[in-house]
């Protein structure tokens, strides 16, 4: 299981960097540390993974409300910007 999670983190963070390079994601995801690890993209992907694991412990309905609320707040911030 840990190998699958490690592979998923690697692929998704690199995919996020590629999307940022192409202009489909914010440029902050292109930031890397001195070793070349994309730390911002990894933190973002880990946060999404945590939200998906909350689905198992809190119940699907509650997590769905959290995710739609987060999406609504992001949309509000985008329109207010």
Written account of the structure:
- With 81 residues, the protein is mainly α.
- The chain has one domain (2-80).
- The protein has helices at 2-22, 39-58, 60-80.
- Helix 1 crosses helix 2 (39-58).
- The longest helix is centred in the first third of the chain and has 21 residues, at 2-22.
Provide tags for this entry.
81 residues, mainly alpha, 3 helices, 77% helix
Distance between the termini: 41 Å
Number of strands: 0
- Following the backbone from N to C, one meets helices and strands in this order, namely HHH
What is the average per-residue confidence, as pLDDT, rounded to a whole number?
82
* Proportion in β-strands: under 5%
Q: Which geometry do the CA atoms define?
A: flat
Q: What's the number of domains? A: 1
Overall helicity: over 70%
Assembly status: single chain
Going by helix content, strand content and strand pairing, the class is mainly alpha
Continuous helix count: 3
Biggest sheet architecture:
none
Rg from alpha-carbon coordinates: 15 Å
Question: Spans with pLDDT under 50 lasting ≥5 residues?
Answer: none
